[in-house]
Model the fold of this input.
Amino acid sequence: MHLIDRITTLYREEFGHTPAHIARAPGRVNLLGEHVDYNDGFVLPAAIDRATYIAFSPTNASHCTLRAVDFNQQARFSPLTIPSKTQLDLSPLPEWALYPAGVMWSLMEERVPVPSMIAAFASDVPRGSGLSSSASVEMAFMIAWQTLGGWILASMKRALLGQKAENKYVGVNCGIMDQFASACGVENRLLLLDCRSLEWKTVPLPDSVSIVIADTTVRRKLTTGEYNKRRSACEEAVRLLQQDLPNIRSLRDVAVDDFNCLAKGLPGEIEKRARHVVEEIRRSHQAQAPLEAGDVQNFGKLMNECHASLRDLYEVSCPELNTMVSIAQSLDGCYGARLTGAGFGGCTVNLVAKEQADGFARALAKGYESETGLRPEIYITRASNGAELIR
Ligand code: GLA
Done:
């Protein structure tokens, strides 16, 4: 049964009527520009064909009632319980409810009407896999509240408010890429975002290739701490480099040649982290020309370089991701393979010749399972539209 039918049925069972609306918001996969969004760099994600779906209706009650189908749990909160992150009975909100509650909080801060709703939601974006399941939940609730609140915000604004919810309410210091891709996705197109100016455009994905996502099924804990450490290392690098380059505001402003001259003055670990960022920003900038020319060979090369850099310099890979990537890179039809998202487990993204994609997926699954004993989930994805009201 498709998720839409499933949540509609569960909504009806729970609340006794048919939901007034259904919204969906996709996860994302990032092809290039990893760990650069919080350094003002360029990213190249696409919204994928896996998403969070919400069935929802307005209610006269002064509180929201949400059913999380994937957790088989319910939470109730209102504008009054939002600041304390609690439910109506004053028990703490379960972790999954922090995302919709955070969206309510950031919309309240924005002073737009945030009416009460009853809702059931579920997602087929695997959690903790680097495909932005949290951003998809946030963006789906943005659409739900936009529908019930009677206001319209631009998709980038909704993305920014979702990021604010995640940074300030949930407490995860993420950049803008995930919410942006979930809010602004365009069918069959990659998105190229300048994370400083927030200007973006779409780039066609050449017809001859498929994007294959390979889930190692490994989930690491404590990734938030490691993520925040990487962010601090980048900030420290900027502070140290400002002694010689007083006008820089972020690593985006540091050219690779200048960095090479100054790198020896940086502590070893800071140098490695900053080198990844400076070179990755150059790579993601360079990627535009080959992509627009349909030159998938050269684009794939940049993806491979990105993985090596995430593994050796930024140190956010893990043995299973490295195994998945090296098997992929050895297979026929694969132009490029690398980990996608924050790292420390989760998925890889592979650019593969379309007619070889099925064989590639089978060979990759077999090779990975025989090397690690783990059964991966591998699927060919399609770039999809961003968050929207379905009905
Ligand atoms: C996570 C964050 C994003 C981005 C990526 C790494 O997905 O939410 O903002 O920093 O990691 O590129």
